[in-house]
Amino acid sequence: MSDTDSDGALMARVAGGDAGAFDRLAARHMRRAVALAQRMTGNPSDADEIAQDAFLRVWQHAARWDGARAAFTTWLYRIVVNLAIDRGRRPGWDPLEAAGELPDSAPDAVTQIAERQTAALVNRALDALPDRQRAAVVLFHQEGLSLKQAAEILGMNETAFASLLARARAALKTALAAGRMPS
Amino acid sequence: MTDRQFLQCMDAYGADPVRWPPELRAAAEQALAASPALRAALREAEAFDGLLGGLPPVVEEARVSRLLSVVGEAARATPQNAAPETLMVLLLGRMPRRMAATLCVTLVALGWLAGSLALPTGLPRPPTRDVALLSDDVVTLFDGDSR
């Protein structure tokens, strides 16, 4: 990626009202933003709305992004996570039982059912976590971000994030041990 | 790193020492190499981490294309917000935060110095006037009726 095509360079152009640069930036990051939103909400239609809303905010507030303080992806993921948490707090919000799609290479029907049951159990345990604990697990374990990146997205230092993650992992371990895990 | 410390870190950060804080990694690898019990615990933790990883949501190409089309149109129909300009930014222009903080501290110090030079400490201070507002002088917009 050349300097003129970097996220920072594109954001500078977006801040100046360049819709073409915005299209390139959105094309580069949309898939991951939607996936993150879907991990957070467990609901594809909510994830689509959150991703659209997040990119519209990127467009509207591009001039506020400060590349010296945070990478563009950190800023974008923070917007997505905050929108997902806000949506979860709305009255009447009800996540679908989205256990994810199984890959075509799954060996057989029994294995598929077992994996789906396991995924549903993990999703239920995740849904029961407080918002920020769920976000910590999604960012670190599911999105594979580093401690530093995940902490920045949640606006905390690494020590506080590690503590949040440890509480989430302990709660999940207890919840999954209490449920019946398909073998 | 003791076995106990290793297990605490594993509970907090997961089963992959490569993803632990950098300052812990070397000691963790040493502890792991020296202890079969830790290696067994690590295998259990890997299974747990595998569950947490979950199945990645499928985001089809058509879905991404539709979203890109929607946000592209929405952006072109939406005005952008300018960066918030504070009074200091308007007066002094944009500058690094550290420089702005230094400038503010300098201005405060100069103001304090100028004030103390202008008013010698030996002179009597002008008397202050106590001001009291009579209730009739206070304009009240709320009449107390909650309706």
Automatic annotation (TrEMBL), chain A:
For the RNA polymerase sigma-70 region domain, which residue ranges apply? Answer: 26-91
Q: Which UniProt keywords apply?
A: DNA-binding, Sigma factor, Transcription, Transcription regulation
GO BP terms in the entry: DNA-templated transcription initiation
Q: Which residues lie in coiled coils?
A: none
Q: Where is the RNA polymerase sigma factor 70 region 4 type domain?
A: 122-172
Which Gene3D superfamilies does the UniProt entry name for this protein? 1.10.1740.10, Winged helix-like DNA-binding domain superfamily/Winged helix DNA-binding domain
Where does the chain cross the membrane?
Answer: none
GO MF annotation list: DNA binding; sigma factor activity
A Pfam family for this UniProt protein?
Sigma70_r4_2
| UniProt record similarity statement | Belongs to the sigma-70 factor family. ECF subfamily.
Q: NCBIfam families under this entry?
A: PRK05602.1 (NF004113), sigma70-ECF (TIGR02937)
Q: What is this protein called?
A: RNA polymerase sigma factor
TrEMBL record, chain B:
Do you know which PROSITE patterns this protein is assigned to?
A: RIBOSOMAL_S12E
Where are the membrane-spanning stretches? 100-119
Name recorded for this polypeptide = Uncharacterized protein
**Organism annotation:** Azospirillum doebereinerae
Keyword entries, A-Z: Membrane, Transmembrane, Transmembrane helix
